[in-house]
Amino acid sequence: MEFEYNKKLVLEDGSEYLGYAFGDDCERITEVVFNTSPVGYQEIISDPSYTYQTVVMAYPLIGNYGIAEDDFETETPTIGGLVVRDYNDEPSNFRSVKTLACVMREYHIPGIYGVDTRKLVRSIRDLGSRLAIITDIKTSKEEALAKINAFTPLHDAVSKVSRKKVAEYPAENAKYRVAAIDCGMKQNIVRSLNARACDVTVFPWNVTADEIDKAAPDGIFISNGPGDPTEAVPVIELVKKLHGKYPIFGICLGHQIISLAYGAKTYKLKFGHRGGNHPVKNLSTGKIEITSQNHSYAVDKESLEKTPLRVTHINILDSTIEGIECAEDNIFSVQYHPESAPGPQDSAYLFDRFIKMMEEKRNA
Questions:
Q1: Dist. CA 224–CA 204, nearest whole Å
Q2: What does the alpha-carbon distance between residue 117 and residue 112 come to, in Å, rounded to a whole number?
Q3: Which of 243, 273, 278, 337 is an active site residue?
Q4: Range list of H helices, the chain
Q5: Is 252 a catalytic residue?
Q6: What pLDDT is recorded for position 2?
Q7: What pTM does this model have?
Q8: Residue 268 and residue 296 in contact, taking contact as beta carbons nearer than 8 Å
Q9: At what angle do helices 233-242 and 253-261 cross, to 10 degrees?
Q10: Any catalytic annotation for residue 231?
Q11: Is the dihedral of CA 33, 34, 40, 42 positive or negative?
Q12: CB burial of residue 177 (10 Å; 0-12, 13-18, 19+)
């Protein structure tokens, strides 16, 4: 006997997708986006970059390997919601300690399964990301649309997810000190730097240049994070004050922030890039790297031409900017995620490049 639908997703254009509730049984309005990765749902739900967004998983089977203690990207997940085709609540994995639904209930993340995610992903691809509400099946379309229309999108994403206090992450046999600016930083970035003998001091997003100078780091890292990069004004101003003084490496939102600090512009993509198999061309080597991506915004190519920044990487699929640098200032950034876990490891060399920059600066 089939169960009756008890949950639905209503988009701002009036389209409805019926399904079954899992996770937290709350109602929530967010932007709806999609991710094409076949694995990594734990990293996705715990990635701060998904704050105020509901993610549609294009891969149909979700939950089958459970949740592992060591794979969270943040201590407190802030994703808006999760939409899947088939949810498995009986995982098979020796590392699993909880089910996905259990973690979603713990952090008040609503979910809906049984949805035709193929149709929904095509809709987002063709018409773009839109506001949507996860609500009870008894909520009428008219009532759902009224709630969406009355909703005011939130603009405090970075301040919400950035830590409020300085945190230290020492490395074994450390050789370098990195000051990391937390705009919504994934924990695997810290792991990647620690593995390369870097003590990492993570600062809140509104840290001042004086505080960074007092810490006397060998290099500065600008992290990934959620929302519109133009709203991260404190970090943009920080980069303006410190570029050229320290080696600086930025990832995702950090890439956009660095570009804005040099006078370039950003714009919102139709439906963003989210997945683990995006091809990116390294213009220096000509090689194609397979990358993990999660972003809604991109750097405007024409605006870069008026800055000292040079394009280093481009997206093969749509020619968007994926990397920039200013060799004179010892600063570079990429739009994608070289720390991806799980995901391709093609771009891990970028952390090694950052290490080399700090070493050369120290020996200069």
A1: 13
A2: 11
A3: 337
A4: 41-45, 100-106, 117-127, 141-150, 157-161, 187-194, 209-215, 233-242, 253-261, 301-304, 349-363
A5: yes
A6: 58
A7: 0.97
A8: yes
A9: 60
A10: no
A11: positive
A12: middle
pLDDT of residue 185 exceeding 50: yes
d(CA 115, CA 34): 13
Cα–Cα distance, 79 to 343 (Å, whole number): 20
State the Cα torsion 282-306-230-46 to the nearest 10°: 10
> Is residue 268's pLDDT more than 60?
yes
The single residue of 43, 252, 295, 326 carrying the catalytic annotation is 252
Q: Which of 189, 195, 198 is nearest to 222 (CA)?
A: 189
Q: List the catalytic residue out of 73, 289, 325, 339.
A: 339
Q: pLDDT of 76-131, one tens digit each?
A: 999 999 999 999 999 999 999 999 999 999 999 999 999 999 999 999 999 999 99
In the predicted model, what is the mean pLDDT of the chain? 96
pLDDT at 52: 96
Active-site annotation holds for 255? no
Cis peptide bond N-terminal to 342, omega within 30: yes
| First-to-final CA distance of the chain | 73
Tokens of 85: 């085709």
CA nearest neighbour of 280 among 188, 226, 343: 343
Smallest Cα–Cα separation from 212: which of 220, 330, 199?
Answer: 220
CA distance 166 to 353: 26
Residues 6+ positions from 270 with CB-CB distance below 8 Å? 128, 129
